[in-house]
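Hey, can you fold this?
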Amino acid sequence: MKKFVLFFGLLLPPTVLASCTIWLPVTLFNNTGEAMGVNTGGDVATVAPNGLFQFRYPSGNLNWVVRLTGSGCEYLYDIPDLPRKYDWPVILVSSDRKGKIQVEKDFSINLLPPSYVGDGPAPAELFLMQEGFPLRPVSKKCG
């Protein structure tokens, strides 16, 4: 009986974790030159010019949409799974800033290297040329 309880105790945590959505910690830098609204479907915030916003990014094959607002317009993005080749840690919840993206004046989204340690927008020479980036909005509504 003790062996069964021990086996079950060792088996349960990985099973529970495997059934959960895995989240990546991401920092978004605002390089639009104005305050920008961000709605990730779970987190909503206003990000000051040259400011940053930290959120959890779902991993895996999820249909995920992010909404940004600024200049009287609303921008919708279909968000791809972030690249794994840079060894971003896969964890459930974290306040660490590992993944980094930056929104530009034209509301395109660029990918920054995880090694970037600045507290504000990065210069263009640091942008990673990764498939799918810069990310462009799939919808823009102004009014």
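Oh, and this one too while you're at it.
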Amino acid sequence: MTDTSIQFEQSLDYLLSRLGKKSWEQPLKLLEEKLRQIPVEECSFAVELINMLHQLNEALTADVDTPLSQMAAIRIASFECWTFRFFKETPEGRRYLEPLTSSVSDFCHAISIQQSSSQFPAPDIIKRWAREHLQ
């Protein structure tokens, strides 16, 4: 585990504890593990996520009735990481990986990454995933 991974996990643990959302830890860690394939100089899901959790913490401090799950779904769907496409070249042709549904192991072996001008999956699918996994 790298220093960056340790820092991310410590920050994630701390912020989720503050928000009372420890149940979010596993799905967010799995998603980060997949999206860390994006070169850091291009984009960092971990940085976007930690920044979002800080913002949610500030919102919760200002208003204890802040709808955290709804806010998280909206904000996660706007992350830059969704403009990156992950794919593998196979004998059958190019196979795209979907970060929300593909396994972590799919992202560990000889994948290529390309940035696009649009999000994938679509924002409504990202929001649905977040509402289902971040309650």
